[in-house]
Amino acid sequence: MLGAREDALYVATDTSVEQEEFIVGQKQLRGLSMLMFGLRFAWDLLWNQRAVNELCRQARGDLAAQDNGEQKPFIGEGDVLTAWAARAVASSLPKPRPVTVLHALNARFRLTPLLQASGVYIQNMAVAAFTFLSSEVATGPLGPIARENRRHLIEQSTEAQVLAFLRELQREFKSGSDATLVRGEPDAVLIPFTNWTRANLFKVVDFSPAVVRVGETAQSRNNPLGTMVFHHAQSMRQIPAARNAFMVLGKDNSDNYWLTGLLLPATWLKIEEQLNGM
């Protein structure tokens, strides 16, 4: 068990890896821009395996339709789910606004010292990454949204950029500044989007040694003995400020995605409309 007494992410910034400028540093919201973001956020508080395959088909078809001879970037199911969520929120707004999608990256998979560790780190190692979408892109076809999401994540998930983010955190902490690490346009809608698919919780959590009696014996059963069919990962109490937030819980044993969301009624209507259209 590593990381109980020493912050491995803090130590990681003292590395021989060439230092880079934090590429989203110039988009930090502070001062008047942060005030504008906060006011708009407060205003919003006051007022207001088949399906995924189909979404992927739509997104890749959108990119093929825009073929200009350039090699198309890879877009994964996570990019498509992000695009679908962002478009649902953006399309439900009373007037067009840019969108900032907030992602959580696991630094364990990004930093060389952590990949080569001799044990398991138990500390929180999530760092932020952002996808910036104009109002036109956010309400357009799925393909370009997914492509932008992939581009931003590739840029910000390199080892050098993760270290740049951590150094930025350290500078803010040492300076005692109250500046926020939220990036984006001051009039943007913030969409926290967390994807736990890589953790593979449905399949790696195994309680079979504790099973004393088999409960479901029908052929329709799709989960191995002692594995779960669902897990709940949201706060059990209401958080008034939480909205436009999505969490992908992962894939179950039938490769179905499970998603949860804290959304406004207008966004749920958009999602229902999109699902009915499939």
Characterization of the model:
This protein is 38% helix and 13% strand. With 278 residues, it is α/β, with parallel strands linked by helices. The protein has one domain (8-65, 72-234, 243-276): Chloramphenicol Acetyltransferase (2-Layer Sandwich), CATH 3.30.559. The chain has a five-stranded mixed sheet with strand order 2-1-3-4-5. A hairpin with a 5-residue loop joins strand 4 (245-251) and strand 5 (257-262). Helix 3 (51-65) packs across helix 4 (77-91) and helix 4 (77-91) packs across helix 10 (265-276). The protein is globular and about 60 Å long. The relative contact order is 0.18. The mean pLDDT is 86.
Topology readout:
Elements: H1 8-12, H2 31-46, H3 51-65, H4 77-91, E1 99-106, H5 112-115, E2 126-133, H6 135-138, H7 142-156, H8 159-175, E3 189-195, H9 201-204, E4 245-251, E5 257-262, H10 265-276
Parallel strand pairs: 1-3, 3-4
Antiparallel strand pairs: 1-2, 4-5
Our estimate of the beta-strand percent is 5-15%
CATH architecture: 2-Layer Sandwich
From the helix content, strand content and strand pairing, which structural class follows? alpha/beta
Q: Return Rg in Å.
A: 21 Å
Largest sheet composition: 5 strands, mixed
- H-E order: HHHHEHEHHHEHEEH
CATH superfamily: Chloramphenicol acetyltransferase-like domain
